[in-house]
Each structure stands twice: as C-alpha cells, then as structure tokens.
Amino acid sequence: MLTVAEVSVAFGGFQALKDASLTVGAGEIVGLVGPNGSGKSTLLNVIAGVHVPKSGRVELDGRPLPLGSIAGVAARGLGRTFQVPRLAQRLTVFDNMMAGAGNQPGERLFDLFLRPGTVAEAEKANEARAVAILKRLDLLHKANGIAGALSGGQQKLLTMGVLLMADPKILLLDEPAAGVNPVLIDQQVAFLKLLRDEGRSILIVEHNMEMISSVCDRVYVLDAGSMIATGTPAEIRANDDVIRSYLGQPA
Ligand SMILES: Nc1ncnc2c1ncn2[C@@H]1O[C@H](COP(=O)(O)OP(=O)(O)OP(=O)(O)O)[C@@H](O)[C@H]1O
Ligand SMILES: [Mg+2]
Q1: How remote is the CA of residue 200 from the centroid of ligand 2, in Å?
Q2: Which of 31, 41, 130, 148 could bridge across to 212 with cysteines, CB 3.0–4.6 Å?
Q3: What digits encode the pLDDT tens for the residues 101-148?
C-alpha cells in the first residue's frame, strides 16, 4: 500500500500542498482530480521523489520512500508518466521501449565482458517484453517508426508502454487522457484494468471525469492544495463541495 500522510509543500511563500493525505491499496486504481493549479502534479512529484515536502510522510508497504530521490523511488517499484510525454522523439517506438527497461545488464561493463551470455539473454527477454506490450497497446505496427511521428494519443500510450518495461508495481499517471481521442481513451481504460488485474496499483491524475468514473475504484479531490473529498466516483460526482470547487468551473 502507498501511503501519503499530511504532506505539505511550499514553493517560496506559496503553499502548493497543505497536509494532503491519500492511500493507494494493492491492486487498486485511484483517481486524483482537482482544478488547474490545485497541486495534483506536485503531489505526484513528491511521491516520485522530485520534491521534498516540508512536512509529512510517504510510505510504501510501511517503509518510507526515499524523499527527493527519483532513482531510489523507482527502485522501490514506482513508475510515473508526465503530463507532457517525455519520449526520445527521433528514436523508433521500439528503441524508446528498450530504453525503458530497467537494470539492463548490458549497461554494466562488468557484465558485458564477463557475462556476455547473460547480457544477450536479458536483451532477448526485454525485446520479447517490448513486443508483447506494444501488441497490447496496438502499437506493434508502429514499432519501427519514429516516436515523434505518432499522434499525441499514441505517444501517451507509448509512454505507458515505456513505463511498463521497468515492470513497476505502482504506476503514477499524470493526465493520460489529455488530448487523446475517445477511441484511444477507451483503449487506455481497458489497458489500465488489465494492469490492475495483474496486481499493479495505479494513481491517475486526470481532468476527464468520464475516464475517472470508468476506471477508478476511489477518487480524491484536491482544491488549492487541500484534500476536500474522497469516495467512489459516483459519490464524488454527487458531492456539493466538489461540484462547487471543480466540476462547476467552466471547462
Ligand atoms: N517548481 C515550482 N515552483 C513554483 N511553483 C510551482 C512549482 N510547481 C508547481 N508550482 C505551483 O504550484 C501550484 C500547483 O501546481 P501543480 O502543477 O501541482 O497543479 P496541478 O493540479 O497539476 O494543475 P494542472 O491541472 O494545471 O496540471 C500551481 O500554482 C503552480 O504554479
Ligand atoms: Mg498537473
């Protein structure tokens, strides 16, 4: 279980998060919604080891996550995507996937010289994994194309694929549906449910309430850095505070 407890973050004099708490249980898909600037990405950044909060705790399975250490958090099995996809635009789709594989033995000189067989085997396993994931994302036919030539929606799918290459137990997704056409959003939803069924946990930041409703078990609502509500998607949609602070605001 991922536990965020009473986390506060300040940028200069500006308080971006005020005692924000949430949990993501094993095999759970949890949504995080809220108006622009309410602190959603900041909270993901705290979990992912980018920002060190001025107070509060972040724990995975009862053990503290290394605050401020992106690599340390990744090593604990957390993976995240960014609001704007970060792909190597000029590399092929397949090469982007291979770059996502964590712990490649070929990158260690020691292994390369002393255990070339291991390197070749790991490389093969990663290739097979990349093919399987691309197939599930319906991107296999684009494997040899340049990532930058994909549509915005396909790039978001590919970012998820790259993330999966490292086999994370918990996925943090920042606005996966933004700028994605409805058909690809349906595909994302099906894919996320599949990942959940594999036992992964997912925390999704998203403005698209339809997507949140169709995929999330529970939802948290941030408003100006504070958690103002939590519940099932149906409960959140019916919550007056939420409607006032968020759903009621002009699109
Ligand atoms: N590195 C930073 N330095 C200073 N201020 C920041 C920094 N990162 C975020 N902020 C501010 O903190 C607030 C929360 O930003 P954040 O990106 O977390 O919002 P968000 O909920 O993800 O919004 P959106 O829905 O627009 O993505 C905003 O007012 C933002 O300007
Ligand atoms: Mg954001």
Answers
A1: 23
A2: 31
A3: 865 545 556 666 666 677 788 888 999 999 999 999 999 999 999 999
- In this structure, which residue's CA is closest to atom 5 in ligand 1? 11
Range of the domain at 16: 1-77+168-251
C-beta neighbour count of 213 within 10 angstroms: 15
Ordered DSSP codes for 10-58: EETTEEEEEEEEEEE-TT-EEEEE-STTSSHHHHHHHHTTSSPPSEEEE
User: Which single residue is written with the structure tokens 């996550």?
Assistant: 65
What's the pLDDT tens digit per position in 150-175? 999 999 999 999 999 999 999 999 99
Q: Which residues line ligand 1 (CB under 6 A)?
A: 11, 16, 34, 36-42, 83
CA distance 86 to 192: 20
Residues with CB in 5 Å of ion ligand 2: 40-41
Query: Is 71 in the same domain as 118?
Result: no
Ligand closest to 51 (CA) is 1
Q: Which of 41, 80, 205, 207 to mutate to test the pocket of ligand 1 (most atoms within 8 A of CB)?
A: 41
Indicate if 67 and 94 belong to the same structural domain: no
Tell me: do 153 and 192 sit in the same domain.
no
- Note whether residue 61 is domain-resident: yes
- pLDDT at 247 (0 to 100): 59
Q: Global pTM?
A: 0.90
Same domain for 112 and 130, yes or no, is yes
